[in-house]
């Protein structure tokens, strides 16, 4: 398995050329991350309604609470189909979060920022602080499902200098 590396303040998974060395699921995961990063630069398409903003935040909060409770099944239930397909089981998903997103797995503090509407999704930025006091910005992308629930389709995590020390 590839180890994330710091590059210019952003965690990145090193890519080997050609990508044939990567599994299909890892290539798909990288595509999701790249698509999410592209969305970060997109302008907001429309305001997010109060109801949608509350529902999106409730989804993220519920997943964070499930991580704290060590409830892999519940945490996985807030993942969108693309993420569920990628990781296949709640245990694999929880292991990935534990290893790759420790501040998301166990945040010491968090602050929800203003959500932005995108074409078919909502981008929800969340400032997080880890147990050592380092600040992070998690950019969650959530998609509304056919049953009207909001599920998390991506989370891009970068260091953030705007909170903490």
Give the arrangement of secondary structure elements.
Blueprint: E1 5-7, E2 10-12, H1 24-40, H2 50-68, H3 72-77, H4 81-87, H5 90-100, H6 102-105, E3 109-112, E4 116-117, E5 122-129, E6 135-144, E7 150-159
Antiparallel strand pairs: 1-2, 3-5, 4-5, 5-6, 6-7
Sequence stretches where pLDDT stays below 50 over 5 or more residues: 1-32, 37-44
Broad shape? globular
Q: What is the CATH third-level topology name?
A: Nuclear Transport Factor 2, Chain: A
Averaged pLDDT: 79
Q: Percent of residues in beta strands?
A: 15-25%
Quickly name the level 1 CATH class. Alpha Beta
Number of strands: 7
Q: Which radius of gyration do the C-alpha atoms yield?
A: 15 Å
Question: What distance separates the N and C termini?
Answer: 32 Å
Q: In DSSP terms, counting alpha (H) and pi (I) runs of 4 or more, how many helices?
A: 6
Domain tally: 1
Q: What structural class is derived from the secondary structure elements?
A: alpha+beta
**Helix proportion of residues, in percent?**
25-40%
Order of helices and strands, N to C? EEHHHHHHEEEEE
CATH architecture type: Roll
**Main sheet characteristics:** 5 strands, antiparallel
């Amino acid at each position: 398995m590839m180890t994330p590396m710091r590059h210019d303040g952003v965690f990145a998974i090193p890519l080997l050329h050609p990508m044939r060395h990567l599994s299909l699921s890892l290539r798909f995961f990288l595509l999701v991350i790249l698509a999410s990063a592209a969305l970060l630069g997109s302008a907001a398409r429309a305001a997010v309604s109060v109801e949608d903003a509350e529902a999106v935040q409730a989804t993220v909060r519920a997943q964070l609470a499930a991580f704290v409770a060590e409830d892999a099944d519940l945490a996985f239930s807030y993942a969108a189909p693309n993420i569920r397909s990628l990781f296949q089981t709640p245990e694999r998903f929880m292991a990935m979060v534990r290893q790759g997103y420790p501040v998301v797995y166990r945040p010491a503090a968090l602050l929800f920022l203003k959500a932005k509407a995108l074409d078919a999704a909502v981008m929800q930025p969340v400032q997080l602080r880890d147990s050592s006091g380092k600040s992070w910005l998690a950019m969650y992308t959530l998609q509304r499902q056919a049953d009207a629930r909001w599920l998390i389709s991506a989370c891009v995590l970068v260091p953030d200098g705007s909170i903490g020390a």
